[in-house]
């Protein structure tokens, strides 16, 4: 079914302020003073912890650095986060817990040179097509590709084997693979003894997960589990990549840790061609975290709880950074419910349409005392604001850097001037900082970047000139006259214990099924994902036609369509415990009975997040978008 014709979003070119419940055009002076006055009022009456910043994963590193600096140095709170919380926060949490660093461990070139590639919980053929080109080069060279996903996707069509598991059974599958590796004598014992800790406890914890037990729990045949275990463990260069099918669960961090356990078990980390790689979706979601636009880390992933780290930044900024973690995005939304967080500054994010159980998000944001939204469009989130500030489009109207999934920092050059009436994000942040008593004088992105380099050791060697010369540099890069290896954690292979450093811990993890239980009333499992033709909530991509775009559909397997008595393109009602929507049916033979699929690309027409569940990972705060329980019903015939 083709997407309906809808009006594309139009660029914002005039500030807006709310009077008597209605947004009206305003001058820049009025809008900026109104925004700053609301921040002052919050600080005077509630204190800095009543403020929250949602930074932008599509804006430059430089903008994200200034946004988190504004939050910490001007406001005085660590309550800053971004859409990293919506997608890959569990990846950052899991990798940082084991390796002290929240980035993928390998380069794209290493993907091409791998012997076996495991793509777990992702469809990069559609969701990460650039990365997938590197995978295809490896496949054409002879590498074996294993795809683990509940759906038979376009990625799986290139796989040596697909393991089509039940939604939410990733941990049993990972445990069974681990047990098989151990029992077959394929564990890399030399690496385990030298570089890890906690192996004995981990081995005992996976013992119940025989191939037969895992087949019953996951639906994956035992022989496929065995083949993957042996192929991965025997490979010289094994790569394990994952996306939101692993992270967007109530136990997303545990899912990530279960995959890290496999890499430690086989010794597939810290070497060229062997690694762990979360595939980041938005163009600078990696960079936003790197720049400290997260509540528990300063720029360069330096720990907010480290007094020496805070002292370094305080000396540079003239600030007094709170000695505790801030609230993540999920916690900020909860704090709005309690009335503890009453002032929100949102830059380039659209939580009204991207958060699970979106009606709850609308209620929360509608109740805050002061909401400032800085964006290029009047999104559904911006429509709730007290002040709307028209911003530049970072990808073509700003000068700076982005950081991709392989940790490569690359220059972004301004190609266009913003439309008349819109202003650069960093200029807006600096103007608001000035009105709150902080005179920042950045002349451009390079000034900001040079400040980053003085405070973040892992970026110190990346001058703009060197980034230009080399076409981008992977972090860490500590010196201007050296480059580090393309892979991380090579220290784990050092013979000298001092050089080797802290052992990488195995993690004991228990299986925890999806929160939204299947019942007679809600018998179908709904999972969500992306399609190649569209981008996130469609605000940016929806204004451009695509011959591939068919709009939102409820994808069902043929057997379920027959059982429900529905046909292709028939409009049906889809209900969960949170709400209901209507959508046309699409038949997909890649789905198993009892599994449905939808995207979140067209919320202005069909808002799938009305029915997704807000159950969140207690470590990372990411919601369980991948596992809602739903009921599908025919609509009554109208005469």
Please state how the strands of the largest beta sheet are arranged side by side. Answer: 2-1-15-14-13-3-4
The helicity comes to: 25-40%
| Amino-to-carboxy terminus distance | 23 Å
Q: Helical segment tally? A: 24
- DSSP strand count: 25
Mean pLDDT: 94
Q: What's the Cα radius of gyration?
A: 24 Å
Indicate the proportion of strand residues: 15-25%
Low-confidence stretches: 1-5
Largest sheet: 7 strands, mixed
Which structural category fits the helices and strands? alpha/beta
Sum up the overall morphology in one term. Answer: globular
Structural write-up:
By secondary structure, this protein is an alpha/beta fold. 34% of the residues lie in helices and 16% in strands. The protein has 24 helices and 25 strands. Strands 2-1-15-14-13-3-4 form a seven-stranded mixed sheet, covered by helices on one side. β22 (571-575) and β23 form a beta hairpin. α7 (170-183) packs antiparallel against α10 (211-218), α7 (170-183) packs parallel to α13 and α16 packs across α18 (358-367). The longest helix has 18 residues, at 28-45. The radius of gyration is 24 Å and the shape is globular.
Question: In a few lines, what is going on in this structure?
Answer:
The chain is 34% helix and 16% strand. The protein is α/β, with parallel strands linked by helices and 639 residues long.
Features:
16% strand, seven-stranded mixed beta sheet, 639 residues, alpha/beta, 24 helices, globular, single chain
Chart the SSEs and their pairings.
Layout: E1 16-19, E2 22-25, H1 28-45, E3 51-54, H2 61-75, E4 80-81, H3 89-99, H4 108-112, E5 116-120, H5 124-127, H6 129-141, E6 144-148, E7 161-163, H7 170-183, H8 189-195, E8 196-197, H9 199-206, H10 211-218, H11 222-234, E9 238-242, H12 244-247, H13 252-266, E10 275-278, H14 285-290, E11 297-298, E12 302-303, H15 307-317, H16 329-338, E13 343-347, H17 351-354, H18 358-367, E14 370-375, E15 387-390, H19 394-397, E16 400-403, E17 408-412, H20 425-435, H21 445-455, H22 464-470, E18 473-474, H23 497-500, E19 504-505, E20 524-529, E21 554-556, H24 558-564, E22 571-575, E23 580-587, E24 595-599, E25 628-634
Parallel strand pairs: 3-4, 3-13, 5-6, 5-9, 6-7, 8-19, 9-10, 13-14, 14-15, 20-24, 21-23
Antiparallel strand pairs: 1-2, 1-15, 11-12, 16-17, 17-18, 20-25, 22-23, 22-25
Helix pairs in contact: 1-20, 2-20, 2-21, 3-13, 7-10, 7-11, 7-13, 10-11, 16-18
